[in-house]
């Protein structure tokens, strides 16, 4: 009997110990769950029991500088979702059927979503209210009150389609800015999401009687740009015309800037694209082959047209850059009298560190020149000599002052920086080529900003494209401040350079930019697009009116291959004149007491092909055009040498005193 009692006591003791151990573990586990995992599990339970549907805010409106023209706006659309657990089993098929019919979707895919064991499924995003109204009517007729959600949403719309496309940019399906202003100012434009909250069980069925909790979305702020829709339209019109007429294979761009405050009045790039369809083919040629193209090719093509070449692509500016060299030389006192005759002499070429560099008109040297004549003639030796006198260190200090060694800081994404040889590696030859605008690269926005420093009296102004931000909540207007970067040159130097630039347009290589009644200054440029590519970049930079500059225009054309040739004075300068002729009156810039400029008569280019060089010279003189013989040799038999090619070709409309280039 005794062993049995001892065994029972032992078993009881063991049982009590095990029970105590289990209870202790359970209490420990409960404590761990309550105090350690409590917050996390509570959050998970809330997420499981609460169904949140997002309410997208209205993205801010983008307006042009007048505040009247809407460039980008968010229109109201709707998004349709379903809660499968709240749709009765007997209704699932007919719900799938009507959803597929109204929104033109695949029935089997919709049925799969409607019968899925999930809390919420998206059926259609950003659909027009006309379609959702049809769904509402059907739901009412079939007495279906739960399981189908129709929520307000927004869709980005661009009223002017292609206007300023590379500046404005576009948005993704989630209303996030992907390019241009839309991306740069996404934080200001996007607003804050709202939500609709509903309590559900694990299968997505409603529980409780709390109903829906509505959290309002906060709309994004509006932006007022410096871009003027009318001026932008003028720039795009003439840019498209010149690129098509002159077969600019790599497109072109035009930048129009107010030099007084840095406002970009227009920034046009050709070709452009439709902001409402940014992923579609943008030219007739592409539309013909788009469906057969590989996705990689499509992406490459789209990225190229989205690119804002005015800020993202660098190029050799050519002779336009001579105004920078002239400014530095005058500021340093190397030239005090810009009209001093005989201060410079062009013999057709100049030797620098054993390398002979030719003037573009080496076959007929310019001879004795003042600095004004040197700029009017675009004479390379004059500016090489000035560069030598300045020296590398001093010249680079001016590059820095003109903000040519740094990005401008314009408020657009993707700005590139210039490409200059490091100062400690720049020798005499490199300095010589820089001084007349070759063998380095800058962006168009860097050049137009530098010339604006000359135009406004010598102050470096940072370019901008947004001038005001308007709060969606309060309507408060926040002005974006004008930023300056110090004095570059004196007002006296500025006036001298502007005076010379006016002579370039009135009598020199930029005469095709003349506009009757307005004092306009400018400089033309032609440079190679890379080494031995046989491609050219043609440009013209103009300032008006000279006595109080309000507008700086830069026209840049990439590889013009048309019959009009590739010279800046013949191709780009006329575009500058066309723009000034419309923009200046639009801005109500008075002609004042400006002397009426004689408009040069237009003529047909003479037919010189097949003629001897001697005959061609006589015909050119009679037609009042300047004959330019490319690669003319010193001992050339002009009586027997036949012209084989000419640019521009015979019959092309040109202005008197224009250059006609011939090859033999």
Task: Summarize the SSE layout with pairings.
Layout: H1 2-36, H2 38-49, E1 50-55, E2 62-63, E3 70-82, H3 92-102, H4 107-114, E4 121-127, H5 129-141, E5 148-157, H6 165-168, H7 180-184, H8 186-190, E6 194-199, E7 213-215, E8 222-225, H9 229-245, E9 252-257, E10 264-270, H10 284-289, H11 295-306, H12 309-312, H13 322-331, E11 344-346, E12 349-352, E13 355-358, E14 367-369, H14 371-377, H15 380-401, H16 428-435, H17 444-455, E15 459-461, E16 466-470, E17 477-479, E18 484-487, H18 491-506, E19 521-528, E20 536-544, E21 551-558, H19 568-571, H20 573-586, E22 602-604, H21 613-623, E23 626-629, E24 645-647, E25 653-655, E26 659-663
Parallel strand pairs: 2-8, 23-26
Antiparallel strand pairs: 1-6, 2-3, 3-4, 3-5, 6-7, 8-16, 9-10, 9-21, 11-14, 12-13, 15-18, 16-17, 19-20, 20-21, 22-25, 24-26
Jot down its keywords:
alpha+beta; elongated; 5-stranded antiparallel β-sheet; 664 residues; Penicillin-binding protein 2a (Domain 2); 7-stranded mixed β-sheet; Beta-lactamase; single chain; 3 domains; 36% helix; Trypsin Inhibitor V, Chain A; 21 helices
